[in-house]
Amino acid sequence: MPNVASWLPPALTQMAQRVDSLFYIVLGIVAAFFVIVEVLLITFLIRYRRTRKNRTGKGVHGNNLFEIIWTLVPTVILVFMGVISVKYVYAQQTPPPHPVVIKVTGHMWYWEFQYPNGLDTRNVLDVPAGQPVLFDITSADVIHGFYIPAVRVQQDALPGRQTQFWMQADTKDIGQSFPVPCDQFCGVDHSKMHATMTVLSPSDFQQWEASQLQKQKASSGS
Amino acid sequence: MEAAMRIPARKSFFRDWICTVDHKKIGIMYGVTALFFFLVGGLFALGVRTELWTPYGRFVDSQTYNEFYTMHATVMVFLVIIPLLTGAFGNYLVPLQVGARDMAFPRMNALSYWLYLVSGLTLMIGMFFGMPDAGWTSYPPYSIQSQGPGIDIWVMTVHLAGLASILGSINFIVTIIKMRAPGMTFNRMPLFTWSMFVTAFMQLFATPALAGAVTTLLLDRHFGTVFYTAAQGGDPMLYQHLFWFYSHPAVYIMILPGFGIISEVLPVFARKPIFGYHAIAYSSVAIGFLGFFVWAHHMFVAGMAMSAGIPFMISSLIIAVPTSVKIFNWLATIWGGAVEYEVPMMFASLGFIGSFIIGGFSGVIVANVPLDMALHDTYFVVAHIHYVLFGGSVMTIMAGIFFWFPKVTGRMFHKTWGYVGFWFYFVGTQVTFFPMHLLGLAGMPRRYATYAPEFHLWNQVATIGSYILGVGTIILLVNLMVSAKYGRKVENNPWNARTLEWTVSSPPPEHNFDEIPVVTENPYQPYPDLEPETESAPAGA
Long-range contacts for B230-236 (Cβ within 8 Å, ≥24 apart)? Predict the structure, then answer.
C-alpha cells in the first residue's frame, strides 16, 4: 500500500473499472469547463483592467444569442452525463444469478458477516474471486455505512431495512486485502469501525468457510 | 412644528439599539452577531483540523471531536451564513434598494433578530451543559440515543433560528411585493433584491419541513413516540427526507443572496452594465424552483433503490444550468470592462468565481448516482460543500461587507490590509479544501476522528490551510473594526455605484429617503464615456 493515498485506490472489480471510466469522462468534461472559466476570468481581469486609456467599460447590456448558447450547451452536456450514467445504475442494481449471499449487519462498532454455511464473523470479510457476491445489509442499532472503496460502492446499513449491493472480485487479486470502513456517522468509535476484506480463490473460500465454522462450533460448544 | 423636526442629540444605547425597529440597525446587529458566531464556528473548525493533524487523534477524544464538528456546522449554517446573507445584507439593503423607508413589518423584523440571538445564545450557553454530537444532520436513531442535553439544545437552536427565518422571509416577500418605489417594476429591481425575493420564498416553503423533522426527533427522544424507531414501525429514512427537503434548498438559501451580491459588485468595478440582467434574475427563480426537486440526491445510498436516484440525478444535473448561466453572464460582465482591482472586486471575481466553480463542478460529479455510490460520505463531499460554502458563500459575504462598508459606516476600510486579508482567504481556501478531494477519492470517510496513516499528508496540508484561513479571518475582522472607528471618511458613493442605496448619505438617514425616489430604468446603465487621461489625475476625478 502506498504511503500517500491521493487518488482512486486500485479497482477490484470490472464494475469498479467501469465506474472509474465514467468518473474520468465526467472529470474530463468538468475539468475542461473549469479551465475555460478560469482562463477567461483571469484573461478578462488582466486584459480589461482600468488604465488611463481604458476608463469606462463597453455599454453592452447583453446578447440573446450568447444567452441561448450558454444555456443550451451546458444543458445538453449535463443531460448527456445523466443519460450515460443510467446504465451503470441498473448494472449496479441488478445482481447476476446465483450469487454467494453474505449477510452484513452493522453494530456499534463492528461489522458482523454471516456466510451461507452459517459461519458468523466479526470484521472479517472473505470473498471468493470470480463469483458474484451479494451483500444483504442491515443494522442492529443505528445507521452505519457499508463501504468498500476498492469496489466503488457503498450502501447505508439501516435498522429495520435491508439494502443490497453486489460485487465480483477479479481473480488477479486473490490473496489481497482491502479496507471496509464504516462511512455513516454512528457514534463515538465511528472511525474505528473497520473490517478487512480478503479475496480468496473459490476453493480456498470453501475451505476457509468450512474450517472457520468448525472452529466456531468447537469454541461455542466448549 | 419646529420641535417635531428636531432630532434628539443623543439617544441612549438602549433606546438606540435594543428598542430599534430600523431595518438598517437590525441589519447591523445581525451582521455583528453573526460575525461573532463566525469566530466561534471557526474556532470549532480549527479544533477539528487540529485533531486531524495526526492520524491518531491526540488533541481531543473522539466524543469531543464529534461535538466539535457538529458545533462547527450548526453554528456556520444556522448562525452565520444564513443570518449574514438574509438577516444582515437582506435587512440592510432590500428597503434601500427598492426605495422604501423600512421593511413592511418593522417590529416583526426586530422580533426575527431577537429570536435569532436567543437561538445563538441557546447553543452557546447550552454548550456548557452538553454539546450535540450527531453531526449537523442529526440522523436518528443515533440522535435519539445520544445521551445528555446536547441534541435537545440543538433542536431548540434550530427551532428558534427557523422561526426567525420564517418571519424574516414573510417580511421580505411583503416588502418586495408591496413597498417598491414608484416606477420600480420587477424588471427594474436590483439583482440583490431579486435574489432575496427568491431566497425568501425558499425559506418560507422549506423551513417548516425542518421544524417537523426536529420536532418529531424531540418527541422520539422524550415523549415515547416512534417516528424513527424501526422496531416499532417507524422509519429513520423519513427523517432524512424531511431534513433534506429543507437542507438542500438551504444550500441555495446560503448561496443565492451571495449571487445577488456578486451581480451588484461586478458591474460597478467593471464600469459596465451587468451582462444579461434578465437571464441572471430569472435564473435565480429557476434555481429556487428546481431547488425543491433535488433533495434525495443526498440519499442515493441511504436505502432507496439505486434506480430511484435517477430522477434526482437528472434534476440535480439540470440545476447546474441556471448557475452556469450566471457564471457566463458574470464573465461577460467583466469582458470589455474597465476593471478596478478594489478589495470587494477581488473577493467577487478571483475569490468567488475562481473558487466557487470548483464546488459547482464537484457537485456535478457527486450528483451522478454511480459516482456518488463511490464518493458519498467521503471527504470528497466535504471538499464539495466547503468550496460551495467557503469558496462561494463566505467569499460573497466578504465581497459584500467590503463593498457596502463605506455605505454603512461612512468610512473607508484600510485597503492594504484588505488585500492582505483577501490573499490569506484565497490561498487558505485552496490549501484547506482542495486536498480534501484527494482524500475522498482515496476513500477516507468523513466524520473520522482517527484515520489510516496513508491519509496523513493531505490532512496535514488541509490543517495548515485552516490556520491560514484563521489568520485571514482575524486580519479581515480587525480591519473592519478599526476602520469603522478610525477609517478615512468618504463621500456617499465612493465606488460610483448605481443602486438606490448609493443615492443617500453614508450612513443613510433613519428614514432612508427624504423624498421617495421615482425609478425610470434598471440600475445597470452604461457609465458615461470618459476621455482617456493624459495626466496622472486620480481615476474618476
Answer: B230/A158, B230/A159, B230/A160, B230/A161, B230/B141, B231/A159, B231/A160, B235/A160, B235/A161, B236/A143, B236/A158, B236/A159, B236/A160, B236/B139, B236/B140, B236/B141
Complex confidence, ipTM: 0.96
pLDDT at B357 over 50: yes
Q: What is the CA radius of gyration of chain B?
A: 23
Closest C-alpha to B209, from B174, B236, B248, B173:
B248
pLDDT 10s digits, A28-85: 999 999 999 999 999 999 999 999 999 999 999 999 999 999 999 999 999 999 999 9
Contact assessment for residue A171 and residue A94, using Cβ atoms and an 8 Å cutoff:
no
With cell 479581515, the residue in question is B476
CA distances from B510 to B7, B67, B491, B501 (A): 11, 43, 18, 13
Burial of B437 (0-12, 13-18, 19+ CB in 10 A): buried
For residue B242, list its beta bridge partners: none
Q: Alpha-carbon distance B397 to A48, whole Å?
A: 25
Residue B450: closest CA among chain A residues belongs to which residue? A191
**Vertex B460 angle, CA B459 and B461, to 5°:** 90
Four-CA torsion B244, B249, B251, B255, nearest 10 degrees: 180
- Which among A9, A88, A93 has the least Cβ separation from residue B305? A93
Q: What DSSP element (H or E) covers A194?
A: strand A194-200
CB B459 within 8 A of CB B379: no
Stated pTM of the model? 0.95
What confidence score (pLDDT) does residue B8 get? Answer: 58
By the 8 A CB rule, do B170 and B178 touch? Answer: no
Which is it for strands A177-181 and A194-200: parallel, antiparallel or unpaired?
Answer: antiparallel
Residue A164, beta-bridge partner list: A136
The verdict on B277 touching A (C-beta cutoff 8 Å) is: yes
B276 at interface of A, judged by CB pairs closer than 8 A: yes
Name which of B221, B311, B329 is nearest B273 in CA terms.
Answer: B329
Residues of A with CB below 8 A from B459's CB?
none
Query: How far is the C-alpha of B329 from the C-alpha of B319, rounded, in Å?
Result: 16
d(CA B453, CA B54): 9
DSSP B67-90: HHHHHHHHIIIIIIIHIIIIIIII
Strands (E), B214-256: none
Of A60, A75, A191, the CB nearest to B273: A60
B302 touches chain A (CB under 8 A): yes
For residue B507, whether the previous peptide bond is cis, meaning omega lies within 30 degrees of 0, is: yes
